[in-house]
Amino acid sequence: MTKTRILHLVNNFADSSISRIVERIIRSLGADQYEWHVGDLGGSPGEMESAIKSLGGKTVHFSAKQAEGPVTQRLRAYIREHKIQVIHTHTPRTILAVTRAGLKNVPHVATKHLLTTPKDRRWGVLYTAFDYVTLYLPDRIVPVSESMAAEIKSLPGMQTRRVIPVRNAIPCEEFYQPERRRTARQSLGFGSEQVVFGYTGRLDPVKRIDLLLQAFAEVLASQPNVRLLVVGEGSQSKELEAMAQALGIAEAVTWTGFRADIARLLAAMDVYVQPSHNEGLSLSILEAMAAGKPVIATDVGGAREVLRQRETGMLIPPRTPKSLTQAMLELAQCPVLRLQLGEAAKEHVFDKFSLEKMVNAYGQIYQSLISNN
Questions:
Q1: What is the CATH number of domain 172-352?
Q2: What is the pTM of this model?
Q3: Beta carbons within 8 Å of 186's beta carbon, 6+ residues apart
Q4: What is the pLDDT of residue 137?
């Protein structure tokens, strides 16, 4: 049987939502029908490269850090040498690299994990313009939420293009580990009576961990038994730790840095908080819900597709510290509500966001691109 040859192109092999989606597609669709190639443009070592290799995938670095010659030239040569049948990109940078390589005879699908806004980063206006321009370059655009798909389809000229939403999903059963709660909390220094709020992900400006720290400081002032667990690293790591010191809450905040044992750390939490001002469809929210945790999240991106207000979680407006404080206070004071929301969240995610649905949708996209080429 001839295998379908797919090349995923990412910025880097760091452990991130993008690399985890790629790894899960490869793991679930398997190596019987597909030959997997994953390339990066960054050239730096990353945690996910070994995971992809362990699944039989071939990895390649196209960055000038790793090899000589223009990136587009090496990319074009690799695709021709390995007879790649579908290119799957995951960022504006990788979309542009494929377009510049001039491979018009190879179908190109791009997953949109996030639509940027001018406030997301430095030079945000220019990057946002670049992000939107690259939407017009691939043969298929795959937004990770229905709300993002609607926004993309509303853009001029997008009505005639193939926009196919595929909602993010996770291996739900991997994240429900209540039996690890006691030992996980002990190892982190949390007492059985303490209410632990938590966050997992990048520590970058778009995630607004600064607002989480401000809200937590107010909650701690009236509820001395609360604690905050922050899992991850990023450009703001040192700045945020300094902010916790300045707010006088450093003793109540635990910073773990990068960790691979997310399920174990989720087991230690009582409430998960996602204060971002921009998201696609957050894997971290799905993971926390699968772990049976009540979630407080800003009403951005695909959050409303996952959380039903006060049924499977709590939605708050973005950039509103007061709303975040109120939601955290309510859940700190009400264990019954925490239990109700956590149970409903788990059932909802297990039912609607199974990994099988996501990977089967990508498999259908790959096969349709090949058959139409």
A1: 3.40.50.2000
A2: 0.92
A3: none
A4: 95
Taking residues 112-118, what's their average pLDDT?
90
Q: How is residue 149 annotated by DSSP?
A: H
In DSSP notation, 179-246 reads GGHHHHHHHHT--TT-EEEEEES--SGGG-HHHHHHHHHHHHHH-TTEEEEEE---TTHHHHHHHHHH
Q: Which of 372, 369, 349, 354 is nearest to 285 (CA)?
A: 349
Residue-wise pLDDT for 26-46, tens only, equals: 999 999 999 999 999 987 778
Where exactly are the structural domains of the chain? 4-169+354-372, 172-352
Q: How many CB atoms lie within 10 A of CB 126?
A: 11
Would 4-169+354-372 and 172-352 be classified into the same CATH topology? Answer: yes
The whole-angstrom separation of Cα 328 and Cα 260 is 26
The strands making up 108-112's β-sheet, listed across from edge to edge, are 58-61, 34-40, 4-10, 86-89, 108-112, 140-143, 162-163
Kindly state the average pLDDT of the residues 83-101.
Answer: 96
> Look-up: residue for tokens 């509820």?
223
How many CB atoms within 10 Å of residue 39?
24
DSSP state string for 276-322: -S--SS-HHHHHHHHTT--EEEES-TTHHHHPPBTTTBEEE-TT-HH
Residue 180's contacts (CB-CB under 8 Å, 6 or more residues apart) are 263, 264, 267, 268
Q: Which residue has the higher pLDDT, 117 or 267?
A: 267
Per the structure block, which two tokens stand in for 31?
A: 């190596």
What integer pLDDT is reported at residue 18 of this predicted model?
A: 94
pLDDT at residue 253 tops 80: yes
CA 117-239-190 angle, 5° bins: 105
Side chain identity at residue 111, one-letter code? T
pLDDT at 124: 75
d(CA 253, CA 120) in angstroms, rounded, equals 25
Distances (CA, A) of 285 to 47, 170, 183, 294, 337: 22, 10, 23, 10, 18
Please state which of the ranges 156-160, 183-187, 220-224, 293-297 shows the lowest mean pLDDT. 156-160
Provide the CATH topology of domain 4-169+354-372.
Answer: Rossmann fold (3.40.50)
